[in-house]
């Protein structure tokens, strides 16, 4: 009976140590640099929207999705364009 308890304790310790080792080797990756510093993505998206070129709209990718401020800026531009439909070109 005591040998089973010792085995379970040793296995639990190995699992904890293995998880820590795996996480320290493969878990921490550097976050990509801020690509929006190189280009003005919101301005480029607003210009693409004004041209009616939906395929030119792009967002910077960050961990867990897109940059929220870029998406919000485009949604605000779409809302403003909806209030003034003459600003959008129809193809």
From TrEMBL:
Domain of life assignment: Bacteria
Protein name: DivIVA domain
Organism: Corynebacterium camporealensis
Lineage: Bacteria, Bacillati, Actinomycetota, Actinomycetes, Mycobacteriales
């Amino acid at each position: 009976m005591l040998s089973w308890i010792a085995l379970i304790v040793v296995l639990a310790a190995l699992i904890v140590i293995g998880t820590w080792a795996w996480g320290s080797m493969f878990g921490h990756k550097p976050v990509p640099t801020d690509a929006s510093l190189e280009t003005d993505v919101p301005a480029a998206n607003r210009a693409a929207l004004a041209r009616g070129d939906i395929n030119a709209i792009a967002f910077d990718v960050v961990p867990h999705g897109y940059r929220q401020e870029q998406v919000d800026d485009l949604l605000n531009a779409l809302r403003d364009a909806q209030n003034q439909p003459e600003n959008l070109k129809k193809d």
